[in-house]
Design brief:
It is a single chain. The chain is mainly alpha-helical. It has one domain. The protein has five helices and no strands. Helix 1 packs parallel to helix 4, helix 3 runs parallel beside helix 5 and helix 4 packs antiparallel against helix 5.
Length: 138
């Protein structure tokens, strides 16, 4: 059981590293096209205005990062948990909760919110299935 728990933690950590790298890339794209983000991150109106000015490319990069991160979280957890796909589903579920919190705290376009949830679920499901299949026979 400890192995499964540690594999879930490792999967979630992998996902957050991937998201951080993807966010760095999307922020670089955003800075070159939309300028700097608002200095006061508690000003919801300023954040909404900034987000509305971002090109679709920035959102596509974020969605790709979230999908890859969900896949990685689930794959790592299922592969190293060696308990079937369920550790991968748990890791993907934790990542889905973090994605939902992000979508609630930072205003995103509706299409991105829907696509983000769907792609995280799909990426997590595929990662858990493939991770469980990748476990060598004992």
């Amino acid at each position: 059981m400890l192995r499964a728990i540690l594999s879930i933690v490792a999967g979630v950590v992998a996902a957050f590293v991937i998201v951080m790298l993807g966010d760095m890339l999307s922020h670089a794209v955003a800075a070159s096209s939309a300028g700097a983000p608002p200095s006061d991150m508690t000003d919801r109106a300023a954040i909404e205005a900034y987000m509305a000015g971002l090109p679709t490319t920035v959102f596509a990069v974020m969605l790709a990062g979230w999908t890859i991160a969900a896949f990685a979280a689930a794959f790592v957890a299922a592969r190293f948990g060696r308990k079937g796909a369920w550790p991968g589903w748990v890791a993907a579920g934790v990542f889905l909760c973090a994605t939902g919190a992000n979508l609630l705290m930072i205003p995103h376009p509706v299409w991105m919110s829907v696509a983000g949830v769907v792609l995280v679920v799909v990426g997590g499901w595929i990662g858990a299935r493939l991770g469980a299949k990748a476990v060598p026979a004992a």
